[in-house]
């Protein structure tokens, strides 16, 4: 069950990344490029996590991928706010 | 080191959720709402990770962690399919 749910989440991350890639192609707004990269990193994190599940040595590296994904979203939001400051 | 990474994941995902919700409150773009809901779920996911691995060591919460991660992503993809023209 856990592997199934994690695999489903990874596949959904890949699909979400594809949607954001399409938005980026359409609008050329790099906000969407950051989102696409982030969701693909989350998918990568889940795949690596499944591969490494019996080996706790590289746990930091595995979750560092997830951390980079969230930092990318924060970068995207900050970048967007800097580009269009509030009135 | 691992604990710090888990905690940072929780903090950054929560920050993403808050900033996206704030963005939705200002702009009312549906995509921002779905993204916010997704990141609220991912923040819960990361808090469960901290609870599971730091507060209550063991792997008892793995099912809830995977379930919250899956539901968050399902919500986002549902929103993307539903709202993108």
From TrEMBL, chain A:
The chain crosses the membrane at residues 6-24, 31-48, 60-78. It comes from the Bacteria. InterPro entries: DUF5985. Keywords: Membrane, Transmembrane, Transmembrane helix. Pfam families: DUF5985. This is Uncharacterized protein.
UniProtKB/TrEMBL annotation, chain B:
Keywords: Membrane, Transmembrane, Transmembrane helix. InterPro entries: DUF5985. Pfam families: DUF5985. The chain crosses the membrane at residues 33-55, 62-82. This is Uncharacterized protein. It comes from Archangium gephyra.
